[in-house]
Amino acid sequence: MMPVRQAPSRRGQPKPQLLAATLFALVAAGTALPVQAQTTFDVIGPHEYDLPVDFKPFNVFVQYAYLQRNKRAFDSDGDRVRGSDSEAIVGLSKYVRFWTPDFNRNIGLAWEVIVPEISIRNDRDNSHASGLGDPMTGFAIWYKPRPDLTLGFQSFLQIPAGSSEVSDKNWKNLSSLFWDWRLTDKLGWTADAGFVFQGDRTDDIRPGHSFHTNHRLGYRATPLLEPFLALDYERSKSTSTVDGGHVLDGGIGLMFHTFDNQSITLRYSHSISGENHSVNDSFNIKYAYAW
Q1: Are 245 and 73 a contacting pair, CB within 8 Å?
Q2: Where is the signal peptide (predicted)?
Q3: Considering the entire predicted model, what is its pTM?
Q4: 270 by DSSP, 3-state: which?
């Protein structure tokens, strides 16, 4: 249950510049023009929504991190052009409380808090911005119509309370449906589809609402190793101040089931096609610990 992306490019700006990215959400460096980068919720792993019902309460801490290099970007014609040459290192720290309500043991509930840590560097113009991004909090609810299938809904509020250099300076709601289908005893598909709704920023930029969907297909090759394929898509609407855009990303990864209550997931993602969007060229890591 997670996300990440950035604000769209200004109208008429042919080459978007990178800002910062958050998990599940949108962030921007106050010193640069806004631009789309990571796709919302593209941090999810191959078992992100493989969730139980009728269980005792437990806790999970997740640390996401990724390195994104913005050497290329898609222009308004979908062609690849020179990007901002900036580099973003983003961490996302998440705490989740899971429980099953007594009134219905056939559903599961979760409440989570997410805090982004952001660092953006651009050697071309010798600039740097860093700090804590806008925090997020929200809930998830799900049920299992059958043992191999999970269906759910999640909604998060992102609060413009991050460090001034990296806050996106507006409120956001990220709501999506999610599902997990264990196709066989080794093959699984986990995915989501939803929308990001945004308020106006304090700098008079009006970001457009966006749709996103994220998919992970994993194969449990051994008790330890699970290679997987990733596919992420996002489309944002244009407004009076920013151009709309879209992007399709593909990726490959490997999940290490290290212990019963811990896992490590590695992934590389790269953009396949897009418009008015940075070309994704990112290395991603996820560490999860449950107790």
Answers
A1: no
A2: 1-37
A3: 0.86
A4: strand
